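ok so I'm stuck.
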Amino acid sequence: MSYSDYKKVFKQLKAKPIKLKKFIKHNSPIARKFGISVTKCRRCGSVKGHIGKYGLNLCRQCFREIATKLGFKKYN
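replied:
not stuck anymore, here's the structure
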């Protein structure tokens, strides 16, 4: 179940508060502490190609775009 599907059901269950409470208990997304979905790019939200070194928390594409602004130099 995707995040958007999770929120759409609220409209249907507004009139039924007990069923809404049960739905939230069993179907809400898990708050993750470990794994790939925890480390996201703070610029675009991508989880792939993550650079966490030095507290950057960027994906490699975003890093390439703003590396010169951050003070990194490209070496051959």
